[in-house]
Amino acid sequence: MKNVASILEKPVVSTIISIFLGFLVAFLILFVAGYNPLDAVLTFFNAIFSKPKFITNVIIKSSPLILTGLSAAFAFKTGLFNIGAEGQYIVATVASTLVGIIFNFHPIIQIPLVILSGVAAGAVLGGIVGFLKAKFGIHEVITSIMFNWISLYLCNYVANSEFFHKPESNGTYPINKSGISMLFYDWKFSEQGRRFLKENPFLNEVLLKTDLSLNFLIAVIAAIITWIIIYKTTLGFELRAVGLNHHAALNAGIKVRRNVVFSMLVAGALAGLAGALTISGTSNNSVQILSVFENNGFNGLAVALIARSSPLGCIFAGLIFSALIYAGQALQFKIGIPSEIINIVIGVIVFFIAITRILPIIVERVYAQRRSENVK
């Protein structure tokens, strides 16, 4: 029993159990609703693994989820709830788009400029939330929600503005080609590139039919750097100390307010990086008028929860989340399964992750009870 409790306490084990239970509940719901769970399973995995472009698209779509997950996880470590990653993501896409349209330098300058402008915009928005929390004690959830809506309406204002709105469209002009960071962007659409790719089916699937870029690699590097900062530096120790008990951290001489502002600033920068890379590294090189949130930031919260706020865990959680969303579209189009089923799976997984924290306690109590009975 004691060994079972120690195994269940490991985040990897509890997360795997939660994912398995999430799928199990989804299959039961499908069966009750009159769908064939076996067909759903086959369609689900075919939608991910049957073609190189499917696997590539899952990896590509995981990049913003990993980064917004890192944004939420970094704030969690300081005891903050960054529900504003959605707004930070949106304002970053706006900043990157404006810079990408206004300037047209050489790609060596333009691409970093477009990306860094988005990172800066997200950092500023996150930093403001942190400052209001540290200086005036205003809860970050309240200000984050407020800034989410401000960011959405700012995006719509820019998309509708006379200077940036593209006629007969629902958004702005795309950024200049010099700011696009997709791999082999010009070459793969050229006559020579198409001819070469036509003779190489695998490369044709991966390059021509996807928005292949370095976004995923950048997201992985960001996760590694975040992990190093949190667990291998003095600053990371201070941030975790503030998150565990800010009163004790204050008595120990740690500058709590400074760390709160810094934490939200970094969290905003990570969410901003997700937005900037979306504009620069995918075919969506402009911002569109938004009637609702796109949920890139909100989904990042679920990624962070599934990863147990582990920066490295966000990589795998982001991939899982991306696979669920991507394959969920195939389930809807090929079998007619409502997209809400995927949302149920995600919700159940997060729910069971919370529940699995209780399982080791239950196992330990049962073990202690049996031990006391044996002694008697």
Q: How are the secondary structure elements laid out?
A:
Blueprint: H1 2-8, H2 11-32, H3 37-49, H4 52-77, H5 85-102, H6 107-136, H7 140-160, H8 185-188, H9 191-198, H10 201-208, H11 215-232, H12 234-244, H13 246-251, H14 256-281, H15 296-306, H16 311-335, H17 340-356, H18 359-375
Write a structural description.
Helix content is 77%, strand content 0%. It has 376 residues and is mainly α. It has a domain at 61-320: ABC transporter involved in vitamin B12 uptake, BtuC, CATH 1.10.3470. Helix 3 (37-49) crosses helix 16 (311-335) and helix 4 (52-77) packs parallel to helix 11 (215-232). The longest helix has 30 residues, at 107-136.
For the report, how would you describe the main beta sheet? none
Indicate the structural class.
mainly alpha
- Distance, first to last CA: 19 Å
What would you say the CATH architecture of the domain at 61-320 is? Orthogonal Bundle
Number of H- or I-type helical stretches:
18
Beta content: under 5%
H and E string:
HHHHHHHHHHHHHHHHHH
| pLDDT averaged over residues | 87
The rough form would be described as globular
Low-confidence stretches: none
> Over all CA atoms, what is the radius of gyration?
23 Å
**Would you state the CATH class of the domain at 61-320?**
Mainly Alpha
Q: Total number of β-strand segments?
A: 0
CATH topology call of the domain at 61-320: ABC transporter involved in vitamin B12 uptake, BtuC
Fraction of helical residues: over 70%
